[in-house]
């Protein structure tokens, strides 16, 4: 009997290669994720499953801070809706990804049915944030950020607390790296949104 072969990459992620032995439909993948809700699961454009363990407390705290900031701005601005790392997005290339934080225009959400919104959203967010945890591979995150941009994201931030860097991704522009910035602006994609990074960098001020 042929079995799917798991591999461990340089991070703590488990990559499970299914295709061409198993080709999950979108509904089957969604149900698979519901049966394993304690894990964060993504699917690559080639059909591989990426299984990630829960993050450490420090990463969870930082992620909570940035999601609260983005959601507060989104509710005040009103032009779009924010989501956290539990939300999945089915990208045009076939991958299903769950960024640590995301924002999408309301005008684009009107093209999606109510039933589609109950599952993984078949759209790429307009804005995404990935927050690097100590076990994350920088290369894997960089590839994921570029994938978002290639699939329609207008702005992406890769935040690396260990190095105190923010890598900014935009369509048609080289990646910009900010070294130890105090804040980062979402202009012009997110007008008026500024993320204070001092709380993200500092772990001892609790």
Characterise the protein shown here.
The protein is of the alpha+beta class and 206 residues long. It folds into two domains: 5-52; 57-201, tt1808, chain A (Alpha-Beta Complex). The protein has six helices and 14 strands. The protein has helices at 26-35, 57-77, 106-109, 114-117, 138-150, 198-201; strands at 5-8, 14-17, 40-43, 49-52, 80-84, 89-90, 96-97, 101-105, 127-131, 155-160, 165-169, 176-179, 183-185, 194-196. The strands form four sheets. It has a six-stranded mixed sheet with strand order 5-8-9-10-11-12, sandwiched between helices. The protein has a four-stranded antiparallel sheet with strand order 1-2-4-3, with no helix packed on it.
Secondary-structure map:
Layout: E1 5-8, E2 14-17, H1 26-35, E3 40-43, E4 49-52, H2 57-77, E5 80-84, E6 89-90, E7 96-97, E8 101-105, H3 106-109, H4 114-117, E9 127-131, H5 138-150, E10 155-160, E11 165-169, E12 176-179, E13 183-185, E14 194-196, H6 198-201
Parallel strand pairs: 9-10
Antiparallel strand pairs: 1-2, 2-4, 3-4, 5-8, 6-7, 8-9, 10-11, 11-12, 13-14
Order of helices and strands: EEHEEHEEEEHHEHEEEEEH
- What CATH calls the topology of the largest domain is tt1808, chain A
Largest sheet: 6 strands, mixed
- Which parts are unreliable, with pLDDT below 50 for 5 consecutive residues or more? 1-10
Oligomer: single chain
User: Which structural class do the helices and strands define?
Assistant: alpha+beta
């Amino acid at each position: 009997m042929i079995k799917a072969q798991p591999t461990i990459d340089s991070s703590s992620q488990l990559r499970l290669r299914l295709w061409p032995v198993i080709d999950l439909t979108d509904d089957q993948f969604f149900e698979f994720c519901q049966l394993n809700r304690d894990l964060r699961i993504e699917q690559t454009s080639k059909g591989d499953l990426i299984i990630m363990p829960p993050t450490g407390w420090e990463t969870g705290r930082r992620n909570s801070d940035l999601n609260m900031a983005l959601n507060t701005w989104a509710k005040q601005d009103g032009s779009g809706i924010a989501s956290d790392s539990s939300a999945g997005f089915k990208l045009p290339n076939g991958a299903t990804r769950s960024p640590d934080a995301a924002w999408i225009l309301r005008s684009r959400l009107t093209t999606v049915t109510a039933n589609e919104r109950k599952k993984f959203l078949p759209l790429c967010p307009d804005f995404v944030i990935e927050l690097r945890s100590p076990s994350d591979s920088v290369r894997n995150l960089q590839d994921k950020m570029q994938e978002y941009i290639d699939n329609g994201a207008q702005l992406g931030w890769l935040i690396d607390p260990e190095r105190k860097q923010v890598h900014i991704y935009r369509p048609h522009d080289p990646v910009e790296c900010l070294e130890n910035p105090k804040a980062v602006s979402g202009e012009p994609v997110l007008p008026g949104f500024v993320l204070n990074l001092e709380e993200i960098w500092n772990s001892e001020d609790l």
